[in-house]
Specification:
heterodimer; A: mainly alpha; about 80% helix; B: alpha/beta; Rossmann fold; five-stranded parallel beta sheet; globular; Bact_response_regulator (chain B); Two-component system, chemotaxis family, response regulator CheY (chain B)
Amino acid sequence: MTELQSVSDKLDNKSEDKLALKDNDKVICNNAADEYFMGIKEDLNQAERLVSDAVNNLVINFRYISKLTESHHEMVLAIERMTAPEASSSINELLEKQMVIANQIEQELEMVITSLQFGDLVAQLLAHTTRQVEMLNVELQRIDRQGAWQGETERKALDSIHSGISKAVEVVKNKSKKKPVVQQGMQMGDVELF
Amino acid sequence: MAKTILAVDDSASIRQMVTFTLKGAGYEVIEAVDGQDAFDKASHHQINLILTDINMPRMDGLKLLELLRKLAQYKNTPILILTTESGDEIKAKGRAAGATGWLVKPFDPKRLLEVIGKVIG
């Protein structure tokens, strides 16, 4: 009896150890995964804030430059009107050059309007990536709770953890929406009238 | 009298760029932050053209398009989609829902004004 009791006690201790190990693994996996994904999500949020900030500032600058350009253009026209007909050809030439520069500035500002839209594209990509990360985390937690690793030994427990993570990645890939932004650069987009 | 355009996008910077471009060309512009906001504003104003994004919270652009086409006032109003999406499937959905045209971001201000000029003058 004593020997049996001893063996039984040993088995009980081993089971407790395994349970503790399993629970420890669970806790370690959950906390580690949680922290990891929270970190990624915070990085993505930060990137979004930086982009938003930069774009806001650029838009303010752009509008101010645009107003200044408009004022400058109006001044040049006013000078042209005030200039006497017999004004020297060099003055007229200078005024012509001013008008050319004003037109060039206007064209450059139009290109800026296209470039400034990068903020929207980046924001959408970041939101998409954040969703991907969140979905993966949720799946990992779910697999943890289901206790995918009911194995008797530590090796089986670890195999099950790996299997669980692989399953989670597969599920997330199948559930993911199509990436909303495929542009590689800021060339103007196509226009199609139906 | 200046024509009125409803510019719908959840991105503030896109709305600003669109408004700047259109106002510079002499159009009146009303901004909306998503499909629901756009539908509410369209119901209370006389809009000559709607320019809308697709991916927006609360109500997306395709849903907005469907609802507007059901209103007698907007049955034939030009509705242009301005979006990052360019796939054939989504374009077909837009066309089936009643979109007048499809513009891919980033837009070029001159081309935007050309297209709008073509559809509403």
